[in-house]
Amino acid sequence: MLKLGLILNYRNYQQTILCCHNLIKAGVDQVTIVDNASPNDSVQQLHAALDPYEQVSILTTKSNLGYAQGNNVGLRAIESKFGLADDHILLVVNPDSLLDSKNVEQVTNFCLSHQDAGTVTVLQRGNQKTAWHNLTKKRALLYNSRIFSKLAHRFGKEEATPYHVNQAQAKSIKVDVNSGAFFAIRQTVFSKVGYFDSATFLYYEEQALTFKLQAQGYQNYLLLTSSYVHKGQGSTQLATREVLGYYQQSRRYLLTQYLHAGKLALLFYDWTIKFEDLLTGDHFSGKH
Asked: Is pLDDT above 90 for 174?
């Protein structure tokens, strides 16, 4: 049995180094780091800090491939190096997530003992949105509107509906979507669904993965028996309109690929974006 960690780095090598040290301390056997063509000296800093560790591998990409495709580079490299096995547990971790040995042990044991398990994670400390319900076609179309989203937010409504958990009642619950900040999954399960859907550059990667796992009969789980620290926004440092643009791109992809939206629905989706861009006087180029 191997516990195989994966970290995708983009610019924030300090957090990646700290995250890697934590994974080793928590009992992860091997850690693979993929630098996603950082425009700073991340690669040099990572090598300087982590080359002494035999259990750490550092890979680089020639261009910024985004979250899904960047992680897939590491996932396929892990498969090539260590082979494909049902008792290999992959731990996908954002650089700004800090785990301990209890987190790693619990998700590993759960994956090994539940053959139906897709992604498995634990609670995020101080954050209610560790797992949420599937996106629906209706919600995707409505929350594409910035006007609707702002009005809904005032009434405490968000596009992603989180699960409300009661730790006193259960040790784990079945969920739709687990946060991509940290999750574990058996390597054979992840490989079976083709790893992440690389058609998205940023955002909704967890939702696309959930749709693929559910189509194969797998169930995602949230464990309520421990928690980890996720600082948030460790790698994504984009202008507000650029962030919104990537959300819109990925959401539209989900509508076509997984939610099977028709032509009228997609026309409405695109019209909403153009209309609100006219109102605000900005637009998104769509370039990575």
From this structure: yes
β-strand pairing of 30-35 with 172-175 = unpaired
| Mean pLDDT across 221-234 | 88
**Do the beta carbons of residue 56 and residue 50 sit within 8 Å?**
yes
Query: Considering the domain 2-280 in this protein, what is its CATH number?
Result: 3.90.550.10
Give residue limits of the domains in the chain: 2-280
pLDDT of residue 233: 58
Q: Where are the alpha helices (DSSP H) in the chain?
A: 13-25, 42-50, 66-82, 101-113, 137-143, 146-154, 187-192, 205-215, 240-257, 263-280
- Non-local CB neighbours of 259 within 8 Å, separated by 6+ positions: 135, 136, 137, 140
> Which pLDDT score is estimated for 286?
57
- Global pTM reads 0.93
